[in-house]
Design goal:
By secondary structure, this protein is of the alpha+beta class. 34% of the residues lie in helices and 23% in strands. The protein has two domains: 9-61, no CATH class; 70-185, no CATH class.
C-alpha cells in the first residue's frame, strides 16, 4: 500500500477540478494537473503547471518559494581543483617551496572567479612572488605536456564547472561529456570540499 499524504481540510478546500496539491517542507503548492501520451510509453506522462502557494488565507497565485540568494556563492571549481590535484611533481620540484603559491597565481590568472581566492588565503600577484607570469606559465605547460599530454588550454574547458555553496551545503554543477572526457583522461574525480 502506497503512503499517501493527508492534507488539512483548509488545503483541500482550495483545490479545484484538474488541480493537484504538493507538500514541500511545511508549504503546500497548487498545480494544474494534466498528462500527455508519449508514443512508445504505456502510461501517460504527468505534466503539472505551478499555480501558486496555498495558505490558510487562500491561494497566493504566481508566488514561488523564496530563496535568500544572499547566502549563495558560485565560484569556478573544475579548472582550479584539477590544477591543484594534477600539478606535476617535476614542476613543483623546479619551483621549490613556493610552488603552491606560484600555482595559485597561475590559476588566478586563468580563472578570475576561482574558489581558491578567498579572504582566508589571498592569492599573491606575480610581482609579490618575484616571478614573471609568462615564464612561470610556460614552464608549467611544458611539464603538463610531458606528464599528461595536455596543455593548459585543454584543461580550460573545466572552468565552467562551478562550486555552489548555499548556507552550509556545497554542490558541484553539472559536468558535460567533454569535461568528463578530460577528467577521465587525467584520472580525476571532482570532490566537494
Amino acid at each position: 500500500m502506497a503512503n499517501r499524504t493527508v492534507y488539512p481540510e483548509w488545503v483541500l478546500s482550495q483545490k479545484g477540478k484538474g488541480q493537484t496539491v504538493k507538500k514541500v517542507g511545511n508549504n503546500y503548492y497548487l498545480y494544474k494537473h494534466s498528462s500527455k501520451r508519449v508514443p512508445g510509453k504505456k502510461n501517460p506522462i504527468p505534466n503539472d503547471t505551478f499555480l501558486g502557494v496555498i495558505t490558510p488565507d487562500g491561494i497566493e497565485y504566481g508566488t514561488k518559494a523564496k530563496v535568500d540568494t544572499r547566502s549563495i556563492t558560485v565560484r569556478e571549481y573544475g579548472f582550479s581543483y584539477a590544477m591543484l590535484k594534477i600539478c606535476p611533481e617535476s614542476w613543483k620540484a623546479v619551483q621549490g617551496k613556493a610552488h603552491e603559491e606560484k600555482l595559485r597565481t597561475i590559476i588566478k590568472s586563468r580563472s578570475k572567479n576561482t574558489y581558491l581566492d578567498d579572504n582566508s588565503k589571498p592569492i599573491k600577484s606575480p610581482a609579490e612572488l618575484g616571478v614573471q607570469l609568462g615564464g612561470l606559465t610556460s614552464s608549467l605547460q611544458r611539464h603538463l605536456v610531458d606528464a599528461y599530454g595536455l596543455k593548459l588550454d585543454d584543461l580550460q574547458v573545466l572552468d565552467t564547472i562551478y562550486l555552489i555553496q548555499m548556507d552550509e551545503k556545497s554542490f558541484i554543477s553539472n559536468i558535460s561529456d567533454a569535461q568528463q572526457q578530460i577528467l577521465d583522461r587525467i584520472q580525476l574525480k571532482l570532490e566537494v570540499p
